[in-house]
Design brief:
2 domains, Metallo-beta-lactamase, Chain A, 15 strands, alpha/beta
């Protein structure tokens, strides 16, 4: 295997190692039964030392492909000195934990991910406990029933072997990654509360994790410790991207793309449209986030809520609730929780 140049005509998930810029490579790694298909891990090297941005899911095949990719540049898994992780979701974090056990290397994660990682390690229901409660508040009992069909009577407990605390909690600011090379750590809450991106203004590269993706809109607030207004945080983080110089986008899912600004504009416009659509559904009589989600279509394929699997139904209903709560915050809707704990919305 030899490193290949990035090619927009090639499927971004095709196994291999791809040259992004001098000393920067992309390695797509597989995901199990996941619509996202793959996750990009980025290698930063000065020829002697290696740093990875994100690590992949702790799967044997992912580890094999990562080893093969590094081998193409004359390196091995034991040469990785640091793992810089954008957020704590398992497709970004857990292979770093596994490789640290085998080979060493330090793992660094945004400091505002600590509550969710702690909850993942200690909760009897694992990382989905909070989501079940939010679904019930959204009037989404049918979605909870779908999840029970998949997982049993309770959501799956987190596999303890996949989760450990990092060696370092990252704060915003400059972070030395190699001798003579710094990255800017930028806090971008929304997808998760502690999500960070890594900027290299000198090379005009932005490692965007799941914050800015080229083909899909990231889920909002899927984490064990929810925040009150995850969509507000996400939109603010997108606007923050516009305040930085425009750079090439190196996303976790999808191909390398020429402009972070252009995609941030598209995502901001998308959510403005969705806010209007969701406000209209409430005006038309939808009283809960679940009712509203049933009246909308989802994904680029315009699928119905009930046409998706239980996990994606959950993401859709929770995202709907995040939009409706933001409309309440903006003064366009009202909300109140009834005696059953279900949150009901109405036009102001």
């Amino acid at each position: 295997m030899e490193p290949r140049e990035e090619d927009s005509n090639r499927d971004w998930t095709e196994p291999g190692i791809y040259s992004v810029a001098p000393g920067v490579y992309r390695i797509p790694l597989p995901l199990p039964n996941d619509a996202l298909r793959a996750v990009n891990v980025y290698v930063i090297t000065d020829g002697t030392e290696l740093v990875l941005v994100d690590s992949g899911w702790a799967l044997e095949e992912a580890e094999r492909r990562l080893a093969a990719g590094l081998g193409a540049i004359g390196a091995g898994l034991g040469d990785v000195s640091q793992f810089l992780i954008t957020h704590v979701h398992r497709d970004h974090y857990t292979l770093a934990v596994e490789l640290r056990r085998k080979f060493g290397g330090k793992v660094a994660l945004g400091q505002l991910e600590e509550p969710s990682l702690t909850a993942t390690l200690t909760s009897e229901w694992g990382p989905m406990q909070a989501q079940i409660q939010l679904l019930l508040q959204a009037g989404g009992r049918p979605v909870v029933d779908e999840l029970v069909k998949i997982f049993g009577t309770t959501p799956p407990k987190a596999e303890e072997s996949l989760w450990e605390k990092p060696d370092e909690w990252l704060a915003a600011g400059k972070r030395t990654v190699l001798g003579g090379k710094d990255l800017d750590v930028v806090h971008t809450p929304g997808h998760t509360a502690g999500h960070v991106v890594f900027a290299d203004p000198k090379e005009k590269l932005l490692f965007t994790g799941d914050h800015v993706l080229p083909h899909i809109t990231p889920s909002i607030g899927f984490q064990p410790v929810p925040v009150e207004y995850p969509l507000r945080d996400f939109l603010s983080s997108l606007r923050l991207m516009k305040e930085l110089p425009d750079m090439r986008m190196l996303p976790a899912h999808g191909p390398v793309s020429p402009s972070v600004h252009a995609r941030a504009d598209e995502l901001l416009a998308h959510h403005e449209t969705r806010l209007a659509e969701m406000g209209d559904t409430v005006a038309a009589g939808a009283g809960t986030a679940y009712d509203c989600a049933l009246r909308l279509t989802w994904t680029r394929r315009k699928r119905s809520l009930t046409g998706m699997d239980g996990f994606n139904q959950m993401l859709a209903v929770l995202e709907t609730g995040a939009h409706l709560d933001l409309l309440v915050l903006q003064g366009q809707l009202t909300s109140a929780d009834d005696e059953d704990g279900i949150r009901r919305y109405a036009p102001r």
